[in-house]
Design a protein that fits this description.
Blueprint: E1 12-15, E2 19-24, H1 40-51, E3 71-77, H2 80-91, E4 96-103, E5 111-121, E6 126-130, E7 138-149, E8 154-160, H3 167-174, E9 198-206, E10 213-217, H4 224-230
Length: 232
């Protein structure tokens, strides 16, 4: 595994005995893959090990994922009890996840619902909108609202009702609103750092152990366009 000494302590959104919620950087992996690159989970384990002087292996549960080029809220768990309960929140869709997307073209309506059927191509690691009758397709539903516009780009709030592979990317691309930097789904140019302008902005859920109602917000990446929209 490649070495990495990045400190995550300044990116922690929420922490207690059960949860560790972190603002993921675009380009970081939530968990390991074939690249064997250092992951955000590795960095978080190291943070916990040092802060609490824990010997041996540090436990960290992973109840959900976020695509590598996407930034924003990632929820890890510190206990298996919390992992089971958080996984159930995701499974039953009783956690509200809100994303910000910067797109190159306004949708035809300023707000609405998108309901499509999508299918994943494993070899390409890409999803496609398809016909409902096609074998292997899954229903994808999201709500969106245009929040603001700059000269050439527009900020859209997206709330997921389902959690399909690359769902926001493929559904917005399908209506002609392509996320900035997302070459895989039709952007003309990549972002210099390989990111795409999709950010997990907010999560609302009931704490899996304490039952406290949490609303957690992740600051946007330190980048001119994100900063413009965040400071409006």
């Amino acid at each position: 595994m490649k070495k990495n000494n990045i400190d995550v302590s300044n990116r922690i959104i929420f922490e207690d005995n059960h949860l560790l919620v972190v603002n993921k950087l675009a380009g970081e992996l939530v968990q390991g893959d074939k690249t064997e690159d250092v992951t955000l989970a590795d960095l978080c384990k190291e943070y916990v090990r040092i802060k609490y002087d824990k010997p041996g292996n540090v436990y960290l549960g992973i109840p959900h994922r976020l695509d590598r080029p996407v930034s924003g809220i990632v929820i890890y768990t510190k206990t298996s009890k919390a992992l089971g309960r958080m996984s159930e929140l995701f499974r039953t869709k009783t956690i509200e996840k809100m994303y910000w997307a910067v797109v190159d073209k306004l949708p035809s309506q300023t707000s609405g619902n998108l309901r499509d059927f999508v299918i994943k191509n494993e070899k390409q690691n890409k999803s496609y909108v398809t016909d409902e009758a096609r074998k292997g397709c899954k229903e994808a539903i999201l709500r969106y609202q245009v929040l603001n516009s700059a000269d050439n780009y527009h900020l859209i709030e997206v709330n997921l009702e389902t959690g399909r592979h690359h769902q926001i990317r493929v559904q917005l691309s399908n209506i002609g609103s392509i996320i900035k930097g997302d070459l895989k789904y039709g952007a003309k140019r990549s972002n210099p750092d390989g990111s795409i302008h999709l950010h997990g902005r907010e999560a609302r859920f009931k704490h899996p152990v304490t039952d406290e109602n949490l609303t957690l917000v992740a600051p946007c990446p330190k980048e001119p366009l994100w900063s413009y929209f965040e400071n409006l």
